[in-house]
Amino acid sequence: MWLMALSVPLLPAIVMLYSRYRVKVATLCQRALAWALRLTRGRVCVKSTHAFVFTNCTHGKVDSVLETFDLYAQTHSTLCIGPEIREVLDEAVRRVRPLRVLELGTHCAYSSVRLLRLLPPAGRLITVELDPVTADLGEEIILVSGFKHSQFQVLTCSSAEAIPRLRSLLGPDAGTSEGFNLVLMDHDPQQYLPDLLALEREQLLCPSGCSVLLIKRNQGADDLRGILDHIRGRTECYSIKTELQCVMEIFYRK
Ligand SMILES: *[C@@H]1O[C@H](CO)[C@@H](O)[C@H](O)[C@H]1NC(C)=O
User: Which residues form the signal peptide (predicted)?
Assistant: First the structure.
């Protein structure tokens, strides 16, 4: 009761604030809604993909896991990457032969599995996923494919939180002080540029050469504009290797 009495004099102020910041409030609400929708939709999608693959694949056989993903994708919409991106990804891994790979956005772990199967024996993958449920399901799929925890690590946090921790996770053994040789970005496109800058700042891009693959999910040209501007301003260390409608590969060398 007293709360109501207290809020009555505040009402004009609230109305005034609301009308002044109406557009901003509306934008914020829209963003929050879009984020919540993306999260729930993403989770539903990941859960049903996971259930299908987990029950229908031959455990321990990486090819069977990938085929079962494909089978699912024939009849359902999924977050798995399409054939065009697969080709670019496989080709990049075969060419670079990376020892250290970073993936931002694990999703169903389809691309994690695809990457891991082509890594040299000493190769290692660190994959970062913001949503804890998705991260757990993804980790299970990687294990079901026959890979061991000595070959990969799933970090459950935002990319911004993960990047400053990566140096210590790479470990002191030979060849790893150089950073990553391959980075796959498939998380929030708004984060692509800030994360690339953070990776540069933390010296996590291998100076002798690092391939950065950027997945374009919603075909939005705007998503990568910031990154493109950045690269064009630094042609001494960046070049564009491949540019397709749904994926772009840039190459970093210092
Ligand atoms: C396994 O595959 C069959 C046949 O394609 C499908 O009907 C079934 O729903 C799948 N299992 C799960 C748990 O999705």
Answer: 1-17
